[in-house]
Design brief:
alpha+beta, 2 domains, four-stranded antiparallel sheet
Length: 133
């Protein structure tokens, strides 16, 4: 899954997950409000094609809203504080058919850090040895 990192977004089809605060997650920025403000400011240049909102998770947390949108003219700067929008190729895509963002499991993340630390340790030892020559 490719994400769009250019700003402003070029013409094309995109999707993004937005999150809104709830009583169990009150301190987060309301992504739906920020995105809606951006689309209103870019009326005629950005078209929302599909929106799917999911209920608050049973264990609490933010409300998720999945939005597919199309950029049809040069818009103003995208609010990347919401995350990078995913580039879509299917106008019939939905929240369940869209390829999700892959978030590494904690163990994989920890293993990646350990590998980086091991590499840094080896570089440090080699650097120290090179100073003794």
């Amino acid at each position: 899954m490719a994400v769009a990192k250019t700003n402003p977004l070029p013409n094309g089809l995109y999707w993004i997950d937005l999150f809104s605060p709830t009583s169990s997650a009150p301190n987060m920025k309301d992504g739906a409000i920020v995105f809606t403000s951006w689309t209103k400011a870019n009326a005629g240049r950005v078209k929302v094609r599909r929106t799917e909102t999911f209920p608050e998770p049973l264990l609490g947390g933010p409300i998720r809203t999945w939005v597919q949108f199309e950029v049809i003219g040069p818009p103003g700067a995208f609010p990347f504080g919401l995350g990078y929008p995913s580039i879509s190729t299917d106008p019939n895509e939905s929240a369940t058919s869209a390829e999700p963002v892959v978030i590494p499991e904690f163990g994989d993340w920890l293993q990646g850090i350990a590998g980086n630390l091991e590499g840094l340790a080896i570089l440090f030892v080699l650097w120290e040895l090179s100073k003794k020559r």
